[in-house]
Specification:
It is a single chain. By secondary structure, the chain is an alpha/beta fold. It has eleven helices and eleven strands. The protein has two domains: 216 residues, Spore Coat Polysaccharide Biosynthesis Protein SpsA, Chain A, CATH 3.90.550.10; 91 residues, no CATH class. Helix 9 packs across helix 10 and helix 10 crosses helix 11. It is globular. The N and C termini lie far apart (42 Å).
């Protein structure tokens, strides 16, 4: 069997406790000895720092770069780790993922094709989460999430070529020379810096791939409030990407259009019968779509709890659409979620 290439794994972190779980999952995966792991970020919690130092002492291929940056912290941490990498392939993971046992082999498999510049893999909801987190993950893997839904499911297809917008940043591998060619991740753009990087790589002529078996478990938002903030951030990021000059994908603006229709029809419905009729039609059509999505996912999951998706999908679309409109008129608000006292991202 052909020897798998040595790869560098860069994990930008704010020092959250779940980082230790990420590192432990890497230490248990097949091919761990061929990974050079760079944990990039200051760790302020004493217990987390102690556990990370213990892992660094135990495994010589884990290194901790205690860095922070006054601006573009997330991008610059990734860039700092990539600059340290001595391998041809560099993989970027979030600090709250658990990798599949054979993840190193799968995430690098497509690079046997020299035209491939980036490969991404699925981000799955782990089984040990609460009800709402499971529902949030199901919503993101449903038809209601549009063309990105496939990013949240594993093993449904063979590796396939994708476009820049389908790259998922928490689990993506780059040829180092491609990362160098596009000048790394933009420090002036967060969140969504990995999508800007993927767009630039695509524009430079590199093939982008998705491997459905190179999956990670990614812990989702565990409450309705945090899920709302996540979707709000996704909507805002879409507008920022358009403003940054990437390809404009009309389908991603559908929630924004729905919010606009509600904002126009609701006040008019108090005064005009036609507006009331149009509002009723609008809501009826949305309910049909919502029911279709819920029943489709109910058939797939075969779990009674999935029926609650009927209420989660509108939350997802409302938050995304409102986030888009707010970003349009009040740009560049801070969207970060970070521990108290941590630097801006």
């Amino acid at each position: 069997m052909e020897t798998q290439p040595r790869i560098s794994v860069v994990i930008p972190t704010l020092g959250r406790p779940i980082l230790v779980q990420t590192l432990n999952s890497l230490s248990r995966c097949i091919g761990f000895d061929r990974l050079d792991i760079y944990v990039c970020g200051e760790i302020h919690e004493p217990n987390v720092l102690r556990e990370v130092r213990a892992l660094v002492a135990k495994f010589p291929n884990i290194k901790h770069l205690s860095v922070s940056f006054p601006a573009g912290d997330s991008s610059e941490k990734k860039n700092a780790g990539a600059r340290e990498a001595k391998t041809d392939l560099v993989v970027f993971l979030d600090d709250d993922v658990v990798v599949a046992p054979d993840w190193p082999e799968k995430i690098t498999a497509v690079f046997s094709d020299p035209s491939v510049g980036i490969c991404s893999g699925p981000s799955l909801v782990p089984p040990d989460v609460g009800l709402f987190a499971r529902l949030a993950g199901t919503a993101l893997s449903s038809p209601a999430a549009g063309y990105v839904a496939f990013r949240y499911t594993a093993g449904k297809t063979q590796p396939l070529a994708i476009k820049w917008s389908k790259i998922i940043g928490c689990n993506s591998a780059y040829r180092k020379k491609v990362w160098e060619e596009i000048k790394g991740f933009p420090a002036d753009f967060w969140p969504g810096e990995e999508m800007i990087a993927a767009f630039r790589a695509q524009q430079a002529g590199h093939k982008l791939m998705f491997h459905p078996d190179a999956w990670v478990y990614h812990y989702p938002r565990q409450s309705p409030q945090k899920f709302w903030k996540q979707m709000h951030g996704y909507g805002a990021t879409r507008i920022r990407l358009v403003r940054a000059g990437v390809e404009n994908e009309i389908s991603t603006l559908a929630p924004m259009a729905w919010i606009a229709s509600l904002a126009a029809l609701v006040p008019l419905a108090f005064f005009f019968p036609l507006a009331r009729s149009l509002l009723g039609l609008d809501m009826a059509l949305y309910l049909v779509v919502d029911l279709y999505v819920t029943l489709t996912m109910l058939a797939q999951t075969k779990r009674a709890e999935t029926a609650l998706l009927l209420f989660v999908v509108p939350v997802m679309h409302l938050a995304y659409g409102i986030g888009s409109w707010i970003e349009l008129f009040r740009p560049d608000k801070d969207l970060s979620e970070r521990p108290a006292g941590a630097p801006p991202r």
